[in-house]
Amino acid sequence: MSAALPAVHLIDGSLYVFRAWHSMPNEFTDVDGHPVNAVHGFTRFLCELLERVKPPHVAVAFDASLTTSFRNAIYPAYKANRELPPPDLEHQFVLCREVAEALGIVVMIDHSYEADDLIGSSLWSLRGHGFRSVIVSADKDFGQLLGEHDEQWDYARGLRWGPAGVHEKLGVHPHQVADYLALCGDAVDNIPGVPGIGAKTAAALLTHFGTLDALLERIEEIPFLRIRGAASCAQKLREHGQSALLYRRLTRIALDAPVSNHADAWLRLNGDGARMDALCERLRFGPLTRQRLRALIQS
C-alpha cells in the first residue's frame, strides 16, 4: 500500500549543513577566501540524494528561528543552551539555500516556525492529498509525525523506519512522542522535563496511562505501579505536572506553519543553470561536482 502512494521527501536541511560543517576540512574557500566547507559537504549530500532517489516532490527546510521561534515566547529558556552559529557558518547557510534553489528544490524557512514545524505542516498538508512522506533526518522528534505510510530516513547511517521503529527506539508510539519528551526532557533543546523521570520511566508511564493528560488525572494510581521509585515519581508529577504540560507545548511539532495547501508546491522545479554556474564559480566547486550539478539540472 505504501509503495503505491506518491512520496514527498522532506529534508531537515540544517542538520545536514551542521554535519557537513563538522565533518568537512577547512581547506574549502570561495573566491573571496571565505570558508565554504559546509556548502561543499551539503552540496555533495544533495547531489547523492537526488541521484539516488530522483524525487519528483522534494523540499528542504532550514532553521532561521533559534531565538525568534514561537516557543521562545512560551519558554524563554528554550534552546538557550545553544550558541548562535558563527558568522562564517551563517553565511554558508545562505549559500546552501541558494544551491538547493538552483537545483529546483523547494526551500522552506520561517522566523517564527522551526524546520521541524515546516516539515510537519508539509507532511500534514500532503497527507490530505494522498501522499506519504519520507523525512530525511536523524532527529528523534520527527517520530511523532509518522503515520501508517510515512517513514524517517537517517541518510548518513542508511537507516529507515516507520511508526513501529519509533516504538522500538523510544518505547512509545508516535502519538506519544511529544508527551514522552515533555516528561523525560530534551537536553538538546534545553527542555528539562520532570525531575527524576528518565526515558524508561516516561515510556513505562505512557504505556500504562496512554497520554500525559491521563497520567496527571490519575496520579494517585502511580505509587501502585511496578516501576522503580513509583511513590517518588508520583510526588514529582504532583509538583511538576503543570511544567510538563508547558514542556509539551515545546516538544509538539506544529502542524499549522505557513505552508501551501496545494500538492504542486512541493514539486521539484527545473534547475537554474545560469545561477548554478555562477555559484560553481563563486564556491570554487571542482569539475566532478560541477558535472553532477549540471546533470541534475538537465535531468
Précis, in short:
This protein has 299 residues and is of the alpha/beta class. The protein has helices at 13-23, 37-53, 70-74, 87-102, 115-127, 163-170, 177-184, 199-209, 212-217, 230-251, 273-283, 287-298, and strands spanning 7-12, 57-63, 106-110, 132-136, 151-154, 159-161. α2 packs parallel to α4.
Descriptive tags:
Rossmann fold, 299 residues, DNA polymerase, domain 1, 5-3_exonucl_a-hlix_arch_N, elongated, 6 strands, alpha/beta
Walkthrough of the structure:
By secondary structure, this protein is α/β, with parallel strands linked by helices. Helices cover 47% and strands 10% of the residues. The protein is built from twelve helices and six strands. The chain has helices at residues 13-23, 37-53, 70-74, 87-102, 115-127, 163-170, 177-184, 199-209, 212-217, 230-251, 273-283, 287-298; strands at 7-12, 57-63, 106-110, 132-136, 151-154, 159-161. Strands 3-2-1-4-5-6 form a six-stranded mixed beta sheet, with helices on both faces. Helix 2 (37-53) packs parallel to helix 4. The two termini are 28 Å apart. The model has no long low-confidence stretch (mean pLDDT 95). Residues 4-268 form the 5'-3' exonuclease domain. This is Exodeoxyribonuclease IX.
